[in-house]
Write a structure and sequence with these properties.
single chain, 170 residues, two-stranded antiparallel ribbon, two-stranded antiparallel sheet, elongated
């Protein structure tokens, strides 16, 4: 990612950047970006890394989802055949954002958090609780990381934040 260089004749750039980061948090900027990403995944099965929809689910996955849906409460956006990473909704509901200032820059992170309870089967719980970070890593290993952004998407987001910083430093 190419960094934008901007020179300002200010004495306390770090303090001003810190203030801007706090303002972005209080205005819900990161929350808005996170919500847009989650909604696009849920509603359109969109993959930000490629700019296309997630590939179709395997037949065995569809059958497994149908079986599990009988014993688990599913999310309203769930469909056994739709590859939108929504079964119970727990993983996408765990997506959080964090905006911090670091020196003369602003860092925005969007990631999953918390623990994902195991699904229920006919004879009880299937497996053990896992962290949502473990689940995200497993999804990344099979090419389905929901939060992996393309270089173009990262650049676009960086430009938006840079424009906000420039405007507020005036």
């Amino acid at each position: 990612m190419k960094k934008t260089k901007v020179t300002f004749k200010l004495n306390n750039v770090e303090k001003k950047i810190n203030t801007i980061a706090k303002e972005l948090k209080s205005e819900g900027f990161g929350e808005h970006v996170k919500d847009q990403i989650v909604d696009k995944i849920r509603n359109d099965a969109f993959r930000f890394k490629t700019g296309k929809k997630f590939r179709a689910l395997k037949r065995s996955t569809v059958e497994s989802r149908k079986r599990l849906a009988k014993t688990n409460k599913t999310h309203p956006a769930y469909s056994p055949t739709k590859p939108n990473l929504t079964f119970t909704g727990r993983l996408l509901n765990s997506v959080k954002n964090k905006i911090t200032s670091k020196g003369s820059s602003i860092v925005m992170k969007i990631d999953v958090s918390g623990i994902h309870k195991p699904y229920k089967g006919k004879k009880g719980e299937l497996g053990k609780p896992k962290s949502n970070k473990e689940i995200r890593k497993s999804l990344a290993d099979i090419g389905r990381d929901p939060l992996e952004l393309s270089k173009k998407a990262k650049t676009k987001l960086s430009r938006i934040i840079t424009a906000i910083i420039k405007e507020r430093l005036k």
